[in-house]
Each structure stands twice: as structure tokens, then as C-alpha cells.
Amino acid sequence: MTATQPGAAIDIVAVGKLYAQRRGTANVALRNVNLRVQSGEFVSLVGASGCGKTSLIRMVGGLAPYNAGSISIDGNPVRGVPKRLGFVFQDAALMPWKTVRDNVTMGLNEIAKTLSKQESRAKVAEQLELVGLTKYADYYPRQLSGGMKQRAGLARALVSGPSLLLMDEPFGALDAFTRLRLQEELALIVSKANTTTLFVTHDVDEAVFLSDRIAVMSASPGTVKEIVSVDLPRPRLRRQGLLDNRRAAELRDHVLRLVMEDQDGKLGPSTAAAPEQPGMLDAGATAS
Ligand SMILES: Nc1ncnc2c1ncn2[C@@H]1O[C@H](COP(=O)(O)OP(=O)(O)OP(=O)(O)O)[C@@H](O)[C@H]1O
Ligand SMILES: [Mg+2]
Questions:
Q1: Atom 29 (ligand 1): residue with closest C-alpha?
Q2: Which terminus of the chain is less hemmed in, N or C, by CB atoms within 10 Å?
Q3: Which residues line the pocket of ligand 1, CB cutoff 6 A?
């Protein structure tokens, strides 16, 4: 793996986000969002459509400003795109006129300057191998399947050895089988590299499989309403291994219930509550 340094730590404190609307009004997209992600931790954001997941992850990645509170990475307030960041978007966002190899090479960003041509090529080749795209290095994005595009997007995000990986529904558009395979590959890659990962998904099973903790968001305005610790042992190599796991089912039901009750407000309290496990991981603060 290319990452040799520890993963970044993220501190999101009392963050708010407003989008200006016509006639001087504003849409309060996020209010009082609190979340602390530790170095090497995998945290998923789940919540109803429009609750502000993309807004939050873009602010962490320095792609959008916030209006209140603070976001810092390793203690430094985010101003612009942080160094050693990998970002994976829902649609892979590859450059159509570049080959897979050249798209992945773009992900080297800043560190390209410190590498010889040979070293760059070697890093890109290593990453392509890791995501199973070696044979497709000279293909253009239009010649790839959806799953292959996502792999290329993942390789581009990982090639610089990021200390922080931000992923916004990266597998949302994929068929179920490709999705399972990529989840397993991602679990392996980030655990080997100890990369801190903030991951947006609508798929609660995916969140349970991958995450150390799941931050459940509520909407209008968006905030983190509960953080659920996924107290399942690691390594979790196979999704199938969770199918008949009772604890995994309880956690999924609990998270689903939290998301659903926010959507229709009709469901009663969960019977499978999964509170933070004190001492397991340093608890991130939930929004009040
Ligand atoms: N560029 C923008 N300009 C104005 N309003 C925006 C903009 N981006 C997002 N919003 C608003 O902010 C709120 C949160 O949107 P956001 O895209 O962050 O939600 P989300 O949780 O990612 O939703 P989804 O699950 O559908 O992707 C919504 O009310 C949306 O209308
Ligand atoms: Mg979104």
C-alpha cells in the first residue's frame, strides 16, 4: 500500500450550513452537527434524502464553505481541499478523454511533483492491480462497465495514499453483486492502509458491514441525531458472514428504525437499541 502515515482525525463541531434562496431567504441545510472521527476509523453517514449528507462531506473535503461552527482535520481548520485527501463521488466522475491509467494518475495530485515518472507509473500500476483494472489501463471510461468505473474512481482516490477518504454513495449505481464485491474490497483496502474514511450511503447493510460507527442524520434541518457503534468483530472480510449474524441484524434494524422514524414519525422506539459502547471507541459527540 502507498499510505505509510496514520489516518487523519476529523473534528466537526456545531457546524451549520445555509443555502441562500431567492428573495433573501435561506434554506438551513445543517444545524449543530457534531461528529468526531478518529484516525483510522470508518464512519458512515446515513439518513433520509435531503438531510445534508453530501453537503457535510463536501465541507469536510473543502469543496464547500460552512456558515457556523468548525471543521478541522488533525487539528487544522479546513480551508480549501486538505492535503492527502481522496474523494470518491457517486458517479465516479472520470475524465472521459483520458484512459483509466491517466485518470488514476491524476489522483497523484501534489505528490506527483515529488516522484520520478517511473515511480508515478509504478504507483498507478500498483493501484490498478489492487482494484483489478490492470488489463483495462488503456481503456477509456466509455468502454468500462459501471463497476469498473467505480473501481477506477476508487483507484484515483487511493493512489496518493490519502490519510482521509471521503466517499459519497460510491456504490449507489451498481448492481447488487458488484456492490458486494466492491464493499469487500474497500473493507480490505482501508483496513490495510489504516485510512480514515467518511462514507455516505443509503444502504444500511453496507454501513453495518463497513463501519466502526454509523452517524444517523435527521432532516430539516439536518443534524446528527444518534451515533451507533458497530460492535461486530473485525476483520469482516465477507458480506455473507453477516447474513446470519444476529447482532448485525439488530444493528441494521435499529439504524433503519432511526432513519424511518425521521421520515414518517410514526414508529415506536427501537427494541434493539445499540447505544454507544463506552470504552470501545472514543465516543463522538452527538448533536444535542
Ligand atoms: N448547491 C445547493 N444550493 C442550494 N441548496 C442546496 C444545494 N445543495 C444542497 N442543497 C439543499 O441542502 C439540503 C441538503 O442537500 P444534500 O444534497 O446535502 O442532501 P443529501 O443528504 O446528500 O441527500 P441525498 O441522500 O438525496 O443525496 C437539501 O435541502 C438541498 O435542497
Ligand atoms: Mg447526497
A1: 50
A2: C
A3: 19, 27, 29, 49-55
Which residues lie at CB < 5 A from ion ligand 2?
54
State pTM to two decimals.
0.88
As a whole number of angstroms, the distance between CA 265 and CA 127 comes to: 45
How many Å from the N-terminal Cα to the C-terminal Cα in the chain? Answer: 39
Q: What is the tally of helices (H) and strands (E) in the chain?
A: 7, 10
Distance 170 CA to ligand 2 centre (A): 11
Q: What digits encode the pLDDT tens for the residues 3-45?
A: 457 889 999 999 999 999 888 888 999 999 999 999 999 999 9
Q: Dmax of the chain from CA atoms?
A: 60
Q: Are 212 and 43 in contact (CB under 8 A)?
A: yes
**CATH architecture observed for domain 1-84+164-288:** 3-Layer(aba) Sandwich (3.40)
> From the centroid of its chain, how far is CA 116?
31
Residue 149, all three cell numbers:
468505473
Distance CA(159)–CA(176), nearest Å, equals 26
| 52 Cα: distance to centroid of ligand 2 (angstroms) | 7
What are the domain boundaries of the chain?
1-84+164-288, 95-160
List pLDDT tens digits, range 231-282: 999 888 888 888 889 999 999 999 999 999 877 654 444 444 444 433 333 3
d(CA 195, CA 181): 19
162/243 Cα distance (integer angstroms): 31
Mention every residue, 6+ apart, whose C-beta is less than 8 A from residue 228: 213, 214, 215, 216, 251, 254, 255, 258, 274, 276
Average pLDDT, the chain: 87
Separation of alpha carbons 46 and 55, rounded Å: 13
